[in-house]
Amino acid sequence: MLFWVIAAILTLGASLAVLLPLAGGSKGASAAGDHDLEVYRDQLSELDRDAARGLIQPAEAEEARAEIARRILRLGNADPAAKAAGPSTATRLVATVAVLAVPLISWGFYSELGSPDLPSQPLSARLAKNPADSSVDELVARAEAHLAANPSDGRGWDVLAPIYLRLQRFPDAVGAYRNAIRLDGDSAARQAGLGEAIANAAGGIVSAEAQDAFEAALKLDPANPKANFYLAMGLAQEGRVPEATAAWQKMLGTLPQDSPWRRAVEQALAESANKAVAAGQPAKGPDAGEVDAASSMSPQDRQAMIETMVASLDEKLRQNPRNAEGWMQLVRSYVVLGKADQARDALGRGIAVFGRDSEEARKFTAFAASLGLTATE
Length: 377
Known about the structure:
By secondary structure, the protein is mainly α. Among the domains are: 131-280, Tetratricopeptide repeat domain (Serine Threonine Protein Phosphatase 5, Tetratricopeptide repeat, Alpha Horseshoe), CATH 1.25.40; 298-371, Serine Threonine Protein Phosphatase 5, Tetratricopeptide repeat (Alpha Horseshoe). It has 19 helices and no strands. It has helices at residues 2-23, 25-52, 58-76, 80-84, 89-113, 123-127, 136-149, 154-166, 170-184, 188-201, 208-220, 225-237, 241-254, 261-279, 288-295, 299-319, 324-336, 340-354, 359-370. Helix 1 runs antiparallel to helix 5 (89-113) and helix 8 runs antiparallel to helix 9. The chain is elongated, with a radius of gyration of 45 Å. One of its GO terms (biological process) is cytochrome complex assembly. Residues 276-298 are annotated as: Disordered. It is found in: Cell envelope.
């Protein structure tokens, strides 16, 4: 009903704006004639003043008075119909009918073709409707509007974080997971989600910060598949492919047949096998036996053994340089040993092998940055 009241008022206003000038035509013409008469009277007064001051000859003054008088007479003798100079009655009638017909016809069409009873849908109303009838963007907007007004709603952040992750809004997902953890406490799902968001925000690199989140998730749930998968990926990125393969194989043996992670693990195992074949004998770190042997040594002997293995890895990479995982492990090894200059040198050599504009170079740079290391110019 409110719609029709407003529409009627607007239509009435528009119609009056058109009709009023038609009704006032003769009045405007009469006002124009009165103005002309006033002008002629002013001319006569001015002529008398000029003649009195001697600015015009008496004969010329008389001739001018006669001319002005003739104009006044013509104005007074004009045809009253012409004097009105307004539209005829028939013209005004046709215009009135046309003006009134437009809203009547348009209202008729709208009542048949339009939806006058459909309620308005401002953003606030759309966000308040049934979530099942909303798009993903509307749901996110609803959640964001709610959290802007209620930033301490940990449950809201917990719901929004994985949505951000699926939408690939990784920095937003990191912030949402941190808020959920801060407000509602740790959980394996939140820590694993945080680690995944951090890794994806870094271009897929499982950085030390992401590893911390995944390890925190495993402390709460040792079987968490997301944390186990990404930690194995971190091992592969460091060049520890055999360890990563073993971790993925262990996962594959414990995952249910209908787990969505089975396909991801199988794909990761296939990719790691292809890389191993392509690289021949890949550069790798110490195996389990070497680690056990090193644990029984004195600190000096253990340090010497580690440095020997790192040097061996460096030499293998000089002979077989197109091994991206090996370069990342070498950089990390030098950083752990506190040899920042050698780590930068290894980083620079790795970038040079693949080219500064390559995907591997960007991966190396991001990985080094996660270790607090920057490439030399």
